[in-house]
Amino acid sequence: MTERRLLMIPGPIEFEPEVLRALGQKTLSHVDADFIAIFGRAIGRLRDVFLAPRAQPFVIAGSGTLAMEIAAANVVEPGETALVVDTGYFSDRMAQIFDRQGVKVVRVAAPIGRVPDLGEIEKALKTQSIKAVAVTHVDTSTGVRAPVEAIAKLARENGALSLSDGVCAVGAEVLRQEAWGVDVAFTGSQKALGVPPGLAIVVAGPAAMAAYKARKTRVASLYSDFGQWLPIMEAYEAKKPAYFATPAVNLVTALDVSLGHLLAEGMDARFARHARIADAFRAAWSALGLETLPTSADVTANTLSALYYPDGVDASVVGHVRDEGVVIAGGLHPEARTKYFRVGHMGAVTGSDVLATVGAIERGLARAGYGTADGRGLVAAQKGLAAKAR
Ligand SMILES: *Cc1c(COP(=O)(O)O)cnc(C)c1O
Asked: Which of 28, 146, 194, 245 would suit a FRET pair with 269, their CA atoms being 20 to 30 Å apart?
């Protein structure tokens, strides 16, 4: 059985060999001078990746969901109200997290495949006392990308903080945290940052840190409390040893390597590469007659594609594509779970990965009775890639 199967799901993704080698190195003491230097550098690099020069990064062992909990727990207090811009599965999770923390939730929702109307968000902000607005930058269940910049602006104009769930976006979709005025942006390691699962990464801007310091109640979870972690993050950056809870030493080392790759590519070049790759995939989907969940181009993410199964085809196609050598994902949004599949395209993805994936999907669809794998998707993707290369 071959291990050479291309992983094209919306996280975890294919990782760079150098990142994986970093994971396999001897584990250093968490207060070893070498590790302190690595961790300190990774924290600084996060400011450059999030384009948030004045913000405080937190790197904490846990998955992306922990990053959501930390963001919610530190800047909103029980009894206050948060507005959730609801674009699908992960917005719903954010609402559940606020609810568990005793925060009242106001939702502004849109039908599947769309983003809520900005006018409705503004109305909710003007008619209610809202402490923070939470938006999912890319909802991984639908491939819908929300206008984070515009929503952060509305929040600020109405005296609310903004929280952006960038777990399927940071490092691939355009995010300029400071210029956009996003108060807390967060992600997990395993998506566009290109590091195996296990790190929650939260970047808090000055207004978010001020809101934390002005709290009347303490954060109920010790592990999630900014106050426990701030001295640790500051110490690592100042090259001094500190301990609150053992950092994931090998993952942090791998994170530092991967952030180095991101910054060597350059954030703008990286955003542009993801847009190019996504365009080539979209050309293939359209040539194959596949319909996307997002209903318009301006709300379609560059990090993944969510596609309805064509008539007469069911979820078995995911298994066929796997047999053809490429791992893709089924549906996730509860309203349409069995009706669509998802293809991740973020991180180290290349033009060759695009062709391998489109080819495997064409053959998988043909096995499921749709089309003849005549290469029309491949031709469209290849033309897209070649046009952009010129
Ligand atoms: C994957 C994802 C999460 C959850 O991350 P886990 O690491 O699975 O806990 C949250 N939000 C978004 C947008 C995601 O894509």
From this structure: 146
Tens place of pLDDT per residue across the chain (390 aa):
677 899 999 999 999 999 999 999 999 999 999 999 999 999 999 999 999 999 999 999 999 999 999 999 999 999 999 999 999 999 999 999 999 999 999 999 999 999 999 999 999 999 999 999 999 999 999 999 999 999 999 999 999 999 999 999 999 999 999 999 999 999 999 999 999 999 999 999 999 999 999 999 999 999 999 999 999 999 999 999 999 999 999 999 999 999 999 999 999 999 999 999 999 999 999 999 999 999 999 999 999 999 999 999 999 999 999 999 999 999 999 999 999 999 999 999 999 999 999 999 999 999 999 999 999 999 999 999 998 665
Predicted TM-score (pTM) of the model is 0.97
Give the Cα separation of 14 and 357 in Å (integer).
13
- Pocket probe mutation, ligand 1, options 140, 164, 173, max atoms within 8 Å of Cβ: 140
Ligand 1 atom at minimum distance from 136 CA:
13
**Closest residue (by CA) to atom 8 of ligand 1?**
64
**DSSP string of 271-301, one letter each residue:** HHHHHHHHHHHHHHHHHTTPPBSSSSGGGB-
Exposed, middle or buried, 41 (CB in 10 Å: 0-12/13-18/19+)?
A: middle
Ligand 1, atom nearest to 168 Cα: 15
**Torsion angle (degrees, nearest 10) of CA 227, 233, 237, 242:** 90
Distance set, CA 151 to CA 108, 114, 133 (Å): 12, 15, 8
Residue 85's nearest CA partner among 38, 31, 132 is 132
- 373 Cα to the center of ligand 1, angstroms: 33
Whether residue 136 has its Cβ less than 6 Å from ligand 1: yes
Q: Distances in Å between the alpha carbon of 183 and those of 18, 151, 170, 237?
A: 32, 12, 15, 21
Q: Verify whether ligand 1 is closer than 6 Å to residue 164 (CB atom).
A: no
Q: Using a 6 Å cutoff on CB, does residue 89 contact ligand 1?
A: no
From atom 1 of ligand 1, which residue's Cα is the shortest distance away?
167
